[in-house]
Design goal:
By secondary structure, the chain is an alpha+beta fold. The chain has a domain of about 50 residues. It is built from three helices and four strands; from the N terminus they run βαββααβ. The chain has a four-stranded antiparallel beta sheet. β2 and β3 form a beta hairpin. α1 runs antiparallel to α3. The radius of gyration is 14 Å and the shape is globular. The mean pLDDT is about 95.
């Protein structure tokens, strides 16, 4: 399984509006691309950063589905987020693969 992870560090002053927007716009937009089968949302309890840190992890079974999302949809979705919350957050994203130990 592949996991596309978005980590957001959000300004305390906008958290309530940001969470609502993420729930009603951002996550549904990502899932609507068809690239992912589901997601998990987490908050980082011991973050050293100012603001509140959230991680949203989306699950997919193939690199092709992720690549389609990355090249066709990601920029537009992130632009919409930037318009809503410009300079009130930091974002980084990573692609991970689940392994068995």
């Amino acid at each position: 399984m592949l996991v596309y992870n978005e980590t957001f560090i959000v300004d305390d002053a906008i958290v309530t509006g940001w969470l609502e927007w993420i729930k009603t716009n951002h996550i549904p937009s990502i899932l609507a691309t068809g690239a992912f089968d589901g997601y998990k949302a987490l908050t980082v309890l011991d973050s050293p950063n100012e603001g509140i840190t959230y991680c949203i992890q989306y699950h997919t079974d193939t690199i092709e589905r992720y690549s389609d999302f990355f090249y066709k949809h990601l920029e537009k979705i992130h632009q919409a987020h930037n318009v809503q919350f410009e300079e009130r957050f930091a974002l980084f994203h990573t692609l991970m693969e689940e392994i068995e130990l």
